[in-house]
Amino acid sequence: MKLFILFCITCFCFLSFSDGRSDPNSVGRVRAVNLGGWIVTEGWIKPSLFDGIINNDFLDGTALQFKSGKVGKYLSTEAGGGTITLAPIASSWETFRLWRIDETTFNLRDCIGRFVGMNTIGNGKDIIAEIGRPGATETFQILRNPNDLNRVRIKAPNGFYLQVKMEEIVSADYEGNGGWGDDDDDPSVFTVTIIGKLQGEFQVTNGYGPHFASQVMKEHWSTFIVEEDFKFIKENGLNAVRIPVGWWIASDPFPPKPYVPGSLHVLDNAFSWAEKYGIYIIIDLHAALGSQNGAEHSSSRDGSQEWGQTDDNIQQTVDVIKFLSSRYANSSSFLAMELMNEPLSPGVSLDILTKYYKAGYDAVRKYSETAYVVLSNRLGPADPTELFRFANGLNRSTVDVHYYPYYNNALSSFTVDEYVEYIYKNQSEQVKQLTTSNGPPILVGEWTAEWQLTNTSKEDYKRYAAAQTEVFGRASFGWAYWTLKNANIHWSLEWMIKNGYIKL
Ligand SMILES: *[C@@H]1O[C@H](CO)[C@@H](O)[C@H](O)[C@H]1NC(C)=O
Ligand SMILES: *[C@@H]1O[C@H](CO)[C@@H](O)[C@H](O)[C@H]1NC(C)=O
Ligand SMILES: *[C@@H]1O[C@H](CO)[C@@H](O)[C@H](O)[C@H]1NC(C)=O
Ligand SMILES: *[C@@H]1O[C@H](CO)[C@@H](O)[C@H](O)[C@H]1NC(C)=O
User: Fold this and answer.
1) How far is the C-alpha of 189 from the C-alpha of 68, rounded, in Å?
2) CB of 373 closer than 8 Å to CB of 329
3) Kindly report the CA angle at 212 between 206 and 213, in degrees rounded to 5?
4) Which of 166, 313, 347, 449 is the most exposed place for a label (fewest CB within 10 A)?
């Protein structure tokens, strides 16, 4: 059994080099926009995509706590040996992540990766947390009180409901009485609290299920970003797009479930539009098999970060890079291949990452001598120059760093002036250090003009955005805004340009 790093909901182009590297692309520095939320789903970018899912707050990766009203305690796996008990206070041991089988049927995973299941030895009514992949004896139904959806009963694989016995014991031996009655007095009723959720590609496709996902995703892909957007990008002073893709694209039209076919066709369209309007493309492997950071944007099923734990897994990722490089190598728009977005430290070690990056680099070079190979820095505790020495041994490589003052807690009490000063002083110092330390060229592959301030004016945003375009404009490879379209208006470069907040 692998170890998983669970529940880490944590929340880094181009081209005139003065360092002597030859540059057959004469585009100058990259001024790009990310096409986020297009072929790799992120619910916060387009919440409506999830509207049609039944029980859409119980998706894969939703983190739940179950409190018994009868004894006022929470289901817990903290006791030794996988025993399930009840604990007075809810924390990680009292939190369960869903694997959704269908809208009412689930597996429940605890904080160290075990699944709740029937104890197959003994009296046939004990439930435990156990290691291994879930099967029939780990499959539960969660039935919600229609008048109060947070009140639930949990039906075990033996056909009986869980119920609380005495203060700390729970067993699957309640037959049910059909009604809900006084929930607080019923030992089989639990109140659920949702303490975390994921809304990525896995969640949306598995949530709609095999009958509807394909149709919903096709509709989304063909309307969210269209040819007209590439024209808009060209006309507004940008010269490139960074396109997040998921590992399943390489097995189109037969991606493994729950993914649905068609994302490859979408990327093909992007290339033909990019060629038509003279725009460069950075393909960005945003979601690697098993998830490199446990986030929804890397299509993690339940918050686990499992990429890189087996050689197989790494080889399959290299194969995805090979597939994409060979397919687009001869396109005049193929500027760069980003081998993986935001691997998270320490779960992805530097050693494993550079081994993969070397194999990925070779895969790109097999088909293209000219494409740049983008190496994303690790998130989490990591030195921003840790890849420099490695990258210097490669031809036409660049290191991607992401700058989001929005997520910097140290700025939580900042004023508008302080934010702007932070960009001109601190952020610019970081960009300067990275561009002058004899490393590869630097791409600021993600940034955005949003902050934690509320009630700020258009002029405030204009200053903040201008500061960032100026400072990130000094990055030797260039920058890419996150993202073109977003329900949160300031994260949408399209909205920012159309409304006069950003002018390039
Ligand atoms: C690219 O074009 C060249 C010349 O036409 C051809 O030999 C090569 O096989 C093509 N590469 C790919 C990956 O299609
Ligand atoms: C870099 O390019 C040079 C000249 O073409 C070549 O000899 C060398 O092997 C290349 N290095 C790598 C790591 O691809
Ligand atoms: C900005 O840089 C200054 C000078 O290096 C430092 O004292 C300060 O703590 C930095 N501010 C933040 C929020 O990182
Ligand atoms: C928002 O800004 C306006 C104009 O500066 C001011 O009158 C108002 O009091 C502010 N509201 C809050 C909640 O700070």
Assistant:
1) 6
2) no
3) 45
4) 166
Q: Whose CA is nearest to atom 10 of ligand 2?
A: 395
Confidence of residue 10 (pLDDT cuts 50, 70, 90): very low
Lowest mean pLDDT among 25-34, 76-85, 210-219: 25-34
Ligand with minimal distance to 425 CA: 3
Q: What pTM value is reported for the model? A: 0.93
Q: What is the pLDDT of residue 27?
A: 57
Paired tokens of 453? 């301030």
Amino acid at position 241, single letter: V
| CATH architecture of residue range(s) 24-48+200-498 | Alpha-Beta Barrel (3.20)
Distance from the alpha carbon of residue 403 to the mean position of ligand 3, in angstroms: 15
Q: Give the closest residue (by CA) to ligand 2 atom 6.
A: 395
Rg for the chain, CA atoms, rounded: 25
Each residue's pLDDT tens digit, 135-147? 999 999 999 999 9
Q: CB of 329 closer than 6 A to ligand 1?
A: yes
CATH code of domain 62-196: 2.80.10.50
Query: What residue segments make up the domains of the chain, in order of their start?
Result: 24-48+200-498, 62-196
Among all bound ligands, the one having the nearest atom to the CA of 365 is 2
Per-residue pLDDT tens over the stretch 470-491 = 999 999 999 999 999 999 999 9
